[in-house]
Amino acid sequence: ASQWDVGEPCVWRRGSGLPGRRSLNNGSEVAQILLLDRDRTALDLTLSVARREGVERLIQPVEVDVLDRPAVQKAVGIQSCSVVECLGFFEYLPTDPPQDWIGAAEFLSTAWSLVAPGGVLLFANMLDSHPELPFTAARRPLADIVPRSVDEVRSLVRCAGLSADDLDVWLPDDGVYAVTASVDSAGETRIPR
After folding, report:
1. pLDDT, tens only, 130-150
2. pTM assigned to the model
């Protein structure tokens, strides 16, 4: 997997959660972290954790439904993010969504539209070859998680209008997840569909 550099201080967009400042260990300073969630309680809880950890000044909560493409683009700004991170969320989106709902490919397309030229989109998916999948499913309900192969993820990336050539895929030794980065290596963010 290649290394990527976000360059100048970056804006980190994320669904609720608090990434550590060590997440960007390439020397870049995190200028701002936007946390996107439609749940005000989740955003408030994240802010209380940020306050306790002394990083509240970096956090800007944005109450928006991340599945609503026009609302997300309006709230965040097209091509405004050095890093867009969807870890722990993407794998819950179906490949073939029910009517009036968003699927995995459309979500990736929306997320990619936020990535600034030279930026990166990070996401992960539980692997369908997870060595302990039956055990894990029996102990923890996984009804909403959609395990996928790396090839299935690549196919979704292509369906979203992204280039599979610009993907870096990390497969940790435990075989549970594939972590994927879509890097705008050409320095030109392509806004799909």
Report:
1. 877 777 666 666 567 888 999
2. 0.77
